[in-house]
Amino acid sequence: MVQIRVEKAKIDQKQTSLLVIGVFEGERDFSQSKELDPSVLTYIKEALENKDFRGTFGSSMVAYTLGKGPMKKIMLLGLGKREKFTDEMARICAGKAAHRAKELGTKEFSILQFSNLDEGLVEAMTEGIALALYTFDKYKAQDKESVRVEEVTILINSDSPRFSMIAERASHVADAVNFARDLGNLPPNDCPPAYLASVALSLAADYGMKTRVIDRYELENMNMGGIVAVGKGSNNPPKLIILEYNGAPVSDAKPYLLIGKAVTFDAGGISLKPSEKMDEMKFDKCGGCNVLAILRAVASLKLAVNVIGIVPAVENMPSSTAYKPADIVRMYNGKTVEVLNTDAEGRMILADALAYGIATYNPKAVIDMATLTGAAIIALGANVAALVGNNKQLTDRVRRMAEKAGERVWDLPLYDEFHEQIKSPYADIKNIGGRPGGAITAAAFLSNFVNGVPWVHMDIAGTAWTQDGTYERSYNPKGATGFGIRTLLKLLGEEEKPSSQGLQQPQQLQQQQ
Ligand code: BES
Ligand code: ZN
Ligand code: ZN
To answer: N- to C-terminal Cα distance for the chain?
Structure first.
């Protein structure tokens, strides 16, 4: 794991094997690096004058300093047009620099702050580097990386400890994202529900959290009909995994409840999926992996909030014991569901987890993350997650946090009419609502299990892993992305400061409307 620190820049003294200097397109003023040796500066100016290097976004050029100065090499890194530069671009550029440094076999490098110093910039640069250097090479004998980048220094023009803290925090967040990626990328043969449960148990032991894993027979006794039904088709039994973190100053403060879908493999069950791209359904556990990672980060950052994480984990397989279309299942909250498609399994397991979590923990707000519908990808593409909720304030807050975190989300409306589509002639509701508005009808289904508590559902089907239509971003290597973790950690981190943005209860909201 790479160590990233910030340091007040003394370029003429910084011993480093590579100094990365960001250059905006069309700019030639090097005031920020005027301490460079004059001959190195001349070299850079020549390169710019002769247009060997133009500073276009993502371009780079490496040169040896030949003993002129304490750094062995410099890298010019194109930042694109200054007026278009954002924190997200800083994240991408820092990631590109890290990739290039890795290609060069560099174990350690330094990077100058790209633009005016602020917290967002330091956070984005730290995240970009730590996230871009992620690789999943557990199963590779040969090309395991021999040289890894181990140490990076971000050189800034301030010695305020605030920025060190920001970089440290961002490193923890990136670690959590990479942890979720490691789990998400695991093949389904090595990651059945019991494996995720064992991960939760070790997290609990390592970070002093409470945990509980509910097994198949206990799930049956507790009437978690949805989780039991989906789990029935597999020899790998279902698990309901619970992690509890208590960090609020008032220890009995109402917790946030996070719920993550973990279908360790979604074959579709009896409503079997086509074989093309079925392999991608190992990523159907990413919502759950994200929740485990968030609890890990919340505990390692010692955030002053109470958080409960619940991960219903199942494998959705066709077999003679599998649940079937036409089955009617009684869920934890007593509602009955007519199963018309066994591939709409995510909502079946989330429903029980939501109802159980809300009844048991009386949370102030609930957020679920799930690779729930292909329809969310049809609606918003592979780079934007869908939000659907029952509380505008909470949804707005998630959207604001996502914007700050550089993750794209957009909300879809949960109008009453959508409930019509999931009415069943035989049971309280059915588990599919037809093609129109499929991401919303899935959420309408879930809303039957949240009992009026402020709730937001994040459909991360398009964003949980890199797939057709995913934009290339240096900090998102192929595979699981950990999308959503940064947003929710921002939301939980902000809770530390009591502010006017505290959540209103539904009654207050109703009065306002
Ligand atoms: N895990 C899938 C959703 C999914 C599909 C996520 C493709 C990412 C990429 C989910 O369990 C599912 O199969 N949903 C069905 C629902 C349908 C049967 C109503 C879908 O989206 O087709
Ligand atoms: Zn499915
Ligand atoms: Zn699924």
So the answer is: 50
Q: How confident is the model at residue 145 (pLDDT cuts 50, 70, 90)?
A: low
**Exposed/middle/buried for 503, CB within 10 Å: 0-12, 13-18, 19+?**
middle
Q: What does R_g of the chain's alpha carbons equal in angstroms?
A: 24
Q: Is 486 a catalytic residue?
A: no
CB 202 within 8 A of CB 312: no
Residue 141 banded pLDDT, cuts 50, 70, 90: confident
Cα–Cα distance measured from residue 512 to residue 392, given in angstroms and rounded to the nearest whole number: 12
Best mutation site among 373, 383, 421, 470 for ligand 1, i.e. most ligand atoms within 8 A of its Cβ?
373
Q: Which atom of ligand 1 is nearest to the CA of 341?
A: 18
- Active-site residue flag, 347: yes
Q: What does the pLDDT read at residue 33?
A: 72
Helix (H) and strand (E) counts in the chain: 14, 18
Res 52 pLDDT > 70: yes
Q: Please, which residues have CB within 8 angstroms of residue 168's CB and are 6 or more apart in sequence?
A: none
CB within 8 Å of 165: residues ≥ 6 apart: none
Which member of 14, 273, 399, 404 is catalytic? 273
Q: Check 96, 347, 364, 430 and give the catalytic one.
A: 347
Is 456 strand, coil or helix? strand
**Nearest CA, atom 3, ligand 1:** 373
**For residue 219, how far is its CA from the centre of ligand 3 (angstroms)?**
20
